């Protein structure tokens, strides 16, 4: 104690405890990479103070807006698995690797994006390009809407997953995802062709339009 000049174990009984100044908390790498028009929200607080986070829009995000690439560690085994997030893999030098994010300091904000349980809540599509994974919006995203993602059709085949994912509350998300038949496909009103996603339906060049 600098006031009474004594070396003490613990607090000074005469002058009391020291005033403790704490260091400023530094956000993780993943949180620092979040674009300014997106925000993280705590959706649930589980045992051990574990936060379940979601990514939400703060302003309108246009369709065909690309995010990425997804930042993670290449690994032959997935060490960090969360049933609410997509399992991602890429081809590198002829090998197939997981994009693993064991903690927030080795990834970017895209690790917080939760998977879409159906077509209605899907706002993003995940796909691989030049050995990297990107997310692109499939429709305009309104403010306060959560960003949710599922695989693009070709990437779903690569991941051995279905092109459309419907998850019941009692179901557990498989690892790797199990292929299922598409549910409630998008149907072309002119020719009756079916598509796994709305984006595929929009890109469909219907040859029957002129005849109609």
Q: Any key phrases for this structure?
A:
three-stranded antiparallel sheet, 8% helix, 212 residues, Beta-clip-like, five-stranded mixed sheet, mainly beta, 3 helices, 25% strand
Brief overview:
Residues 38-152 form the SET domain. This protein is mostly beta strands and 212 residues long.
Tell me what the structure shows:
The protein is built from three helices and twelve strands. A five-stranded mixed sheet has the order 3-9-8-10-7. Strands 4-6-5 form a three-stranded antiparallel sheet, with no helix packed on it. Strands 1-2 form a two-stranded antiparallel ribbon.
Within the largest sheet, what's the order of strands? Answer: 3-9-8-10-7
Distance between the termini: 91 Å
Helix-strand makeup class: mainly beta
CATH superfamily of the domain at 29-159: SET domain
| Number of H/I helices | 3
> Unreliable runs, pLDDT <50, ≥5 residues?
166-183
Question: Given this structure, which CATH class of the domain at 29-159 is correct?
Answer: Mainly Beta
Characterize the biggest β-sheet.
5 strands, mixed
- CATH third-tier fold name of the domain at 29-159: Beta-clip-like
């Amino acid at each position: 104690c600098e006031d009474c000049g004594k070396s003490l174990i613990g607090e000074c009984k005469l002058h009391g405890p020291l005033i403790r100044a704490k260091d400023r908390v530094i956000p993780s790498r993943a949180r620092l990479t979040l674009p300014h028009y997106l925000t993280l929200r705590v959706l649930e607080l589980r045992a051990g103070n574990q936060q379940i986070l979601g990514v939400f829009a703060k302003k309108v995000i246009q369709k065909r807006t690309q995010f990425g690439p997804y930042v993670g560690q290449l690994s032959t085994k997935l060490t960090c698995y969360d049933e609410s997030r997509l399992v991602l893999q890429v081809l590198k030098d002829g090998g197939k690797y997981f994009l693993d994010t064991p903690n927030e300091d080795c990834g970017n904000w895209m690790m917080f994006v939760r998977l879409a349980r159906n077509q209605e809540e899907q706002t993003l599509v995940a796909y691989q390009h030049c050995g990297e994974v990107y997310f692109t919006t499939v429709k305009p995203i309104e403010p306060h809407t959560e960003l949710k993602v599922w695989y693009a059709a070709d990437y779903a085949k690569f991941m051995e997953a279905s092109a459309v994912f419907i998850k019941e509350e009692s179901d557990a998300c498989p690892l790797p995802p199990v292929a299922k038949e598409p549910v409630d496909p998008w149907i072309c009103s002119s020719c009756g062709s079916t598509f796994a996603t709305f984006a595929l339906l929009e890109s469909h060049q219907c040859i029957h339009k002129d005849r109609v």
